[in-house]
Amino acid sequence: MSVHGQLVPEGSRLIALSKRMQSLLQWNHFRRMPALIRMAAVTIVMLCLVAVLAPLLAPYGSGDQDLLVRLQPPVFLGGAWSHPLGTDHLGRDVLSRLLFALRTTLIIASLGVIVGVVTGGLAGLASGLAGRRIDNMFMLLVDAQASVPLTLLALAAVALTGSSPLVLILIVGISEYDKYARVVRSQVLVIKSRTFVESARALGASPLRVAFRHVLPGLVSPLTVLATINFSSVVILESALSFLGVGIQPPNTSLGAMLGEARNYLISNWCLAAIPTAFIVMITMAVSLLGDWLRDLFDRRLSS
Amino acid sequence: MTFVLQRSIRAALTLWIVVTVVFTATRMSGDPTYHILPPNTPEVKREVLRHQLGLDRPLVTQYVDYLSGLADGDFGHSFFSGRMVTEMYLERLPATLNLALPSLLLAILIGLPIGTIAAVKPNSPVDRGLMALTFVGQAVPNFVLGIVFILLFSLTLRLLPSGGTGSWPHYILPVLTLGIASIASISRLTRSSLLDVLGQDYIRFVRAKGLPPSKVIIKHALRNALLPVLTVIGLQVGTLIGGAVVVEVVFAWPGAGRLLVAAVMQRDFPMLQFGVLAVAATVIIANVFVDVGCGLLDPRIQARAS
Fold first, then answer.
1. Model pTM?
2. Looking at the complex, does the CB of residue B162 fall below 8 Å from at least one CB of chain A?
3. Which DSSP symbol is given to A93?
4. Is the CB of residue A148 less than 8 Å away from at least one CB of chain B?
């Protein structure tokens, strides 16, 4: 590796970066995690696995209806093993729907976070590197967005564009961009004043080159931490929109959409609501725990 | 005084950006006649309606008209009921305020003591317990919390009504559901801000002077620690209004939030526009108050701004 690094000097930065990522992913770190965090990490991995394998694991299709066995209770409340978690108001298997809902929720949240990181990162990079005027303008825009609560903003966007999974991804992604933008901007202002950036400039590197080759690599870890923390708020926003009936549309389903449908059957079949509720809480808690832990880890490194 | 003026100008500018974005977005979203008139309406009729709504004029004229309309307090009529959107919104607003204001009050009255108690003995069992609770409060989304409350207190224990308005027990679950996230963030911030202050030299000095701990905290530390907390309380105004949208749906609360959700379903753009503007204005004005409040409490902020 080091030979490569010497042969291709530009590559050395990339290699250093990948080494840093490797060290972050090391087993050692995992072993040093507090038990609670380890549980959260395992939960997340399991949920992701289940979501990926949903089509293989689900006993029925997510939309398969059997109107003869509507609103069956789950096994632990006296139901039959043919529908382990019971059925909903259209006789659809709750377990199958849960698996597909989990899949939808996690896919939309992951893509949403990527959209947020890219748009927010670029906006922050631009405003941090550009002059004061652009910076001021940008902060005004961020202020304007911050003045409209997220739920309302997303509702308005759905009303204007109609609801589709793609629109939903863009909305939940862009709605969080300002958080990334603020962090990136402040980090850029710090990195910009370092000598290695100054020397790159003195050597005649173009502004774009400075931005992507020298400043951007320093932003990887704060962005990773922030993305983890924001993942749960993206899940919450998507679930809230789907819960209100303006997010994921039938026949597709997400955890929020399942909860929204179950709301009408709270009295007769409380399990229908309790099951997606448990999963939403599991995701948001596990991700928040991990995010908080990562932030503490990162902060300690920054200070030392 | 210049400080207040400065903040107000910035607030006005922010509001103007919101107005402009809202205007552009609605104009870009296509022909509203398709939402108002039934499908299969002949093109001639659409043309007439477009003329009535003024949509056939140049964009700049429409924009100027729109702005002057706003200045006159004319925010348009609902596509569906045909009534003034301001009238419809103001009808529903009291119910939302009856939900949001108690939640804010609750968040302050519970959040501040929790944060203070946790900060007095950091890393003690009490601190850890309280912080674990606030962590859960922050991680669980409000609509999930609402459903859990209904399942627990209305359906299982049969203690409280699950929705609607009327007597005071109707308020308990919605206000709690809406307020818990704010309680959590206010108490977390109070704790960390108070911990920062307690580590400073002047606190060590008043302690050395022999002041009792309660006096150190209440008289000397809290006063300085509250500044960032005040900013977060300002931010809660937006969070609570946004959260009210969802909580109102969960508890069948007849507030402005449900009006806006209905407007989304029906594509009632004038209603939605006014909703967004009204909320943005509320949040922006609340933040001006908070900024000015911070400036009054800490003259250094004013000095830095000017």
1. 0.81
2. yes
3. B
4. yes
